[in-house]
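Researcher: Re-running this chain for the archive, since the previous output was lost when a drive failed. Same request as before.
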Amino acid sequence: MIDGEDMFADLGRLVARHRVNNGKRWANAAWALVIAAASGWLGLWSLLGSGTGSGGGRRVIGVLLGLTLVAAIIAVTQTARAVRGGRDEFVEVREHGLVHAGRRRLAGWSWDRVTAITVKGGEARHALERHLGTGYTCVLRFADGERVRVDGLAADHTAVGRVALAKCPDAKRLTGAEWQRERGGWLLAGAAVCLAAIVAGILYLAGHPDTEQRYLDPATGHPARHSVPGVPEAGIAVITIGGLLCLIAAITFVGCFVRGRRLPR
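Model: Regenerated structure tokens:
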């Protein structure tokens, strides 16, 4: 790694500078946070205050809570990348190497220090990918353990990957899915936790059955009975929706594990 702006002359003339639009990341984080707050409040209000007896009502609550989770993940991810990159983040492609400037880093590497290149995607397929910058990702890993990530929010982002592939013929080409093989144990552990949560929810419902309670009807003066639910409707809805989310997560974890086993080494 080469630190210090005066040393970047060793990397040759400047070919192109790709500025990263981190202002858009802050805007993305803001609207995602608003969506997460609104949908989360509506979901909890529906869950706790308006009854969840119908299947349609539970599906609506599930959609709202799922939207909350997705929007929250987007907000956290966009915020983290905006903070890490800073206001003036850019990537410079030079004749003999690459320079990256972020909030806490100004560093350069020659092309022969690139050990692995991951390129995924191309031009954005729809408006959401274009706004989030997720349609394209290029990750360059270097011999010193550092890495530079370029996505769709960098100007002329695809050019970085094209130049890196041309300049670094000996660097390892990765698909971005290698983590599924490297972290297979964690994927299986996550699936086991999700299944354990589902079993715990079922056991909790089985351990709290409905009961009958006798009382004296004041209108007739005769004994009467009424059913007392062991678990309130809101609790059943929470366990049901949580169980479905855990099931989806478990299937996803197992699918990633199987896919990772099939990847070529």
